[in-house]
Amino acid sequence: MPQKLAFRMKLIPGFEEEYERRHREIWPELVTLLKDTGIIDYQIFLDRETSNLFAFQVIEGEANSQDLGSTEIVQCWWKHMADIMETNPDNSPISVELPNVFDLQ
What we know:
Elements: E1 3-10, H1 16-24, H2 28-37, E2 39-47, E3 52-59, H3 72-81, E4 96-98
Antiparallel strand pairs: 1-3, 1-4, 2-3
């Protein structure tokens, strides 16, 4: 059975359009890695009032995007995004996992 993962990240205010532009141009090799990992659905929603991002994944497998930080392509993506997001010292986005409190299934 697929598992679900939700987490929150934060943009630096004023970079909402740039964030969307960079994701419209997401690197094909990053998309391949995510799909090969078993991520069958990955959506990111933006709250424009707070610059908060809400990410949601459906995963068939053991790993999720949060487990891919050791790969070169993910590290490059983090560096590419670090100037517009709140990040940790290693450039990874500060990410807070959100518990599932309701599911209509």
